[in-house]
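chain below, 107 aa
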Amino acid sequence: MIIRLEFNPSTDLLELYKFYKNPKGTCLSSSSAYNITPSKIIEKYNNLISFFYIDDETLETHFGKNVCIHALTTYPNIISVKIIESKEKITYDMILYKFAEIELLLK
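prediction:
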């Protein structure tokens, strides 16, 4: 699963770095969650938009079938959470090689 997060533009950069280092209390703190934000997005949006990959099986094993990803919006300064859907199962390798395509689907 790929999760797109958007932060409030007034978010302090120190708060952003703390979140990206360890988003405690969220499924993204799992050792199977990876920040996969392309550097061009980091630069263009000043870290205010980020993408995380988390293995679906790990998500179900450790957090159950009914994990509400949208509960991430209760974390301070997160204004939007979106799950990036695809007709085919998205693998980590696909992210490495096809992420530009997926990114275009967001617009």
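The chain has one domain: 2-105. The longest strand covers residues 78-84.
thats it, cya
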